[in-house]
What we know:
The chain folds into 2 domains: 2-97 and 289-308, Rossmann fold, CATH 3.40.50; 99-281, Rossmann fold, CATH 3.40.50. With 319 residues, the protein is an alpha/beta fold. Helix content is 36%, strand content 14%. Strands 8-7-6-9-10-11-12 form a 7-stranded parallel beta sheet, with helices on both faces. A 5-stranded parallel beta sheet has the order 2-1-3-4-5. The longest helix has 19 residues, at 290-308. It contains 12 helices and 12 strands. Helix 1 packs parallel to helix 12 and helix 5 packs across helix 7. It binds (2R)-2,3-dihydroxypropanoic acid. (2R)-2,3-dihydroxypropanoic acid binds at residues 73-75, 98, 286-287. This is D-glycerate dehydrogenase. InterPro entries: D-isomer_2-hydroxyacid_DH, D-isomer_2_OHA_DH_cat_dom, D-isomer_DH_CS1, D-isomer_DH_NAD-bd, NAD(P)-bd_dom_sf.
Amino acid sequence: xxxxxxxxxxxxxxxxxxxxxxxxxxxxxxxxxxxxxxxxxxxxxxxxxxxxxxxxxxxxxxxxxxxxxxxxxxxxxxxxxxxxxxxxxxxxxxxxxxxxxxxxxxxxxxxxxxxxxxxxxxxxxxxxxxxxxxxxxxxxxxxxxxxxxxxxxxxxxxxxxxxxxxxxxxxxxxxxxxxxxxxxxxxxxxxxxxxxxxxxxxxxxxxxxxxxxxxxxxxxxxxxxxxxxxxxxxxxxxxxxxxxxxxxxxxxxxxxxxxxxxxxxxxxxxxxxxxxxxxxxxxxxxxxxxxxxxxxxxxxxxxxxxxxxxxxxxxxxxx
Length: 319
Ligand code: DGY
């Protein structure tokens, strides 16, 4: 079975695939044009996909030989799962192995914004150490405050657990379903969407993104948030309206924002949000640790090996 991998991945997955007898193609350059990428896809049986290439009706029509796709990601919003399922194409993903790393980044952003870390780092880089000033650009402490989690799955749970342990934060959440483990272990309280945005001191997004949730966090939401609220998004940039977020940050409607994902992504060079001192932006590095990426490599390989043996993928996004 031929596997096309569009970018180098940690060795563990490559070794597993080779040992299972799969024939691997990895292009010399990982900066393929769309046409070149499509050409590789047309000539393979299965794909191990790194990044957010779109897999929709149009793709599957152009590449009818593709029989399975293993994503090197937990998110699958770039795949039309309905179309893939209709065509009997399993879509594998990489849950769990990146939950710790991604929630670490959410925690890091929350703290960076609360203590104005990017602002101060920028000052130091500008050779502006400053004098001790009792009133200047003060941060806020998070002890005993309320963390609101939008989407309390595996990553949301890890974020909530860290906040509970580190700062004794109260946890509220809004989710499709109740998370009984979180309610029991973290004393997390299920609330409505409106209660979530009105009561959170830190609002952190950890849900899977669906197109109908596009710009869900917009002006009317930011308006209802607390003035001291920190907005954290490590899920997908599509969740927030970036122009509205900018306005809310400039007008002091909310305290600050920590973003590992932006809308659009990559962020535009002259996006005014980058000029703000109450913002910390990272370039979608949630899973960028050796441990998480090794885990993702292993899971993606496990998925393709199972498929090559005619078995169900162990980590699958299709319903
Ligand atoms: C994921 O795994 O979904 C990350 O966001 C990278 O795409």
